[in-house]
Amino acid sequence: MTAPIIEIRDVTKTYDTDRPALAELTLQVAEGEAVAVLGRSGSGKSTLLNLIAGLDRPSEGTVTVAGQRVDRLTEAGAARYRRERIGMVFQFFHLLDDLTVLDNVLLPAQLAGMPAGAARTRAAELLDRLGVAGHRSAFPGRLSGGERQRVAVARALMNRPPLLLADEPTGALDSASAADVRRLLTELNAAGQTILLVTHDTALAESCAGRLVELADGRLLRDVAVAA
Ligand code: ADP
Ligand code: MG
After folding, report:
1. Helix 116-129 / helix 101-111 crossing angle, nearest 10 deg
2. Cβ of residue 21 lying under 6 Å from some atom of ligand 1
3. Is 20 close to ligand 1, i.e. is its CB under 6 Å away?
4. pLDDT in tens, 26-69
5. Counting Cβ atoms within 10 Å, is residue 179 exposed (0-12), middle (13-18) or buried (19+)?
6. Which of 11, 12, 14, 17 has the most ligand 1 atoms within 8 A of CB, as the residue to mutate?
7. What is the pTM of this model?
8. Which ligand lies nearest to the CA atom of residue 213 in the structure?
9. Going from the N-terminus, what domains does the chain have, and what CATH number goes with each?
């Protein structure tokens, strides 16, 4: 077996409150898996994503992603790690409204110093694959929610991250757009992309994920395979 792409070991995260946001959590994710993290509001889902993305550090325990000790990175190291290793998709897209669709998708490549020609080729390929090539010169404000989320996914994949993280990616979409994004994430995983997503959308969890992990009060309540 190859080393897991995510290895979380005995992680506790405590904020100022007495109740930890995550408590003694141990979790491994193998390359190529799609894992849905479920749990009520306040159960620790976003905290878990933030620790994996290197946006926050555990109070105790270790977070290793693709062989890298994320809990030990400096701020600059964490920014670089996110640029190179992690794609992130959010509920409300987080696109830059003053940039065109194409420029939004190009941004991570520019920050990573990818040569301009190669970046444009990659962006064109992704926009085409995600069905939004026709909107490349538009500003995000002109697009539907589903189209914006496709652009956000293209941006997240720009630097070929080994790990795609998504926090409620269908949470702000109408049912038809949510179905599009579900299909898209399922296709990406079928093509080998490792995905960890937080969702309340059971249809998304069941169609895309091969495994469900449920948190309750910062602890692992359930970790089950989804029947194919
Ligand atoms: P979820 O994403 O499952 O709704 P969170 O991970 O956001 O849950 O939050 C888990 C717990 O940690 C909650 O009790 C929340 O209030 C607390 N929490 C999260 N972030 C912070 C923070 N920055 N400061 C203090 N408490 C926080
Ligand atoms: Mg959350």
Report:
1. 130
2. yes
3. no
4. 999 999 999 999 999 999 999 999 999 999 999 999 999 999 99
5. middle
6. 17
7. 0.94
8. 1
9. 4-225 (3.40.50.300)
